[in-house]
Amino acid sequence: MEKLGLIAGNGRFPILFAKGAKNNNVPVIAVAIEGETSPEVGQYVEKLYWIGVAQIGKLIKIFKQENVSKAVMAGGLTKGNMFSSLRNLRLLPDLRTINLWYKNVKRRDDQTLLGAVADELLKDGIELQSSTLYVPQLLAKKGILTKKNPTDREMEDIYFAVPLAKEIAKHGIGQCIVVKEKVVLAVEAFEGTDEAIRRGGKLGRSDVVVIKVCKQNFDPRFDIPTVGLDTIKTLKESSASVLALEAGRTIILDIEETLAEADKAGISVIGIGASRLTIDNLL
């Protein structure tokens, strides 16, 4: 069977993807990022290589020597590490990464950067695939996913906030917004989803509503929003009462355990349809 490349970032997603591929008898060649990727991913792949965060040239060389023509990105990168590596020769950015960063990328948002990496891979005959290829069961389904139903007030907050969240995501600012009683408490930016939730929870004090959506030009190769057990922990600590996710376009890591923890915490998790924004089709 043809080998599949895995560009493994941080978090649980690379591990779950590697498990899914192994369960489908797909041999995986994984390239992990030093200081980011959990070594656990090595238990589920045929080979595991390690590179620095800014070594695209080395990544491509590994895939070519392994005859990999299709690959998947799974997991994130700590943004602070990404920026510092390109300004610190000690962390050894290679020439291909330097050219990409300074010559080929005009905007520095996630979608532009990852799209540029995908284009760079394609120049060498390596095509990125959807990151849900072997884990479709992790995608959020439409409807109420937990035992607790949202209140009428919380549903009004969702309906109010979804268009705002989509607009913010369209401009590459962030994918998460925190609201209460139709007041915006926090918008995700560089700091990430968990910190945005904490800020919103601190301001709202209790029963805040969190909405997480995907970007307008959704690209399943690397644009899929992700939540998991850590997200539920942050929601609980921040006294959030609802988490609304875009159905079919959001990954719930360790989905059964995550939804069970949400039930224990009394948090509603909802899969919404955000393509046509009417109150009837949100759920």
TrEMBL record:
Signal peptide segment: none
Keyword Phosphoprotein: no
Enzyme class: hydrolase
Domain LpxI C-terminal, chain residue ranges per copy: 141-270
Span of domain LpxI N-terminal: 3-138
E.C. numbers: 3.6.1.54
Protein name listed in UniProt: Putative UDP-2,3-diacylglucosamine pyrophosphatase LpxI
Pfam families named in the record: LpxI_C, LpxI_N
Keywords: Hydrolase
InterPro entries: LpxI, LpxI_C, LpxI_C_sf, LpxI_N
Annotated Gene3D superfamilies: 3.40.140.80, 3.40.50.20
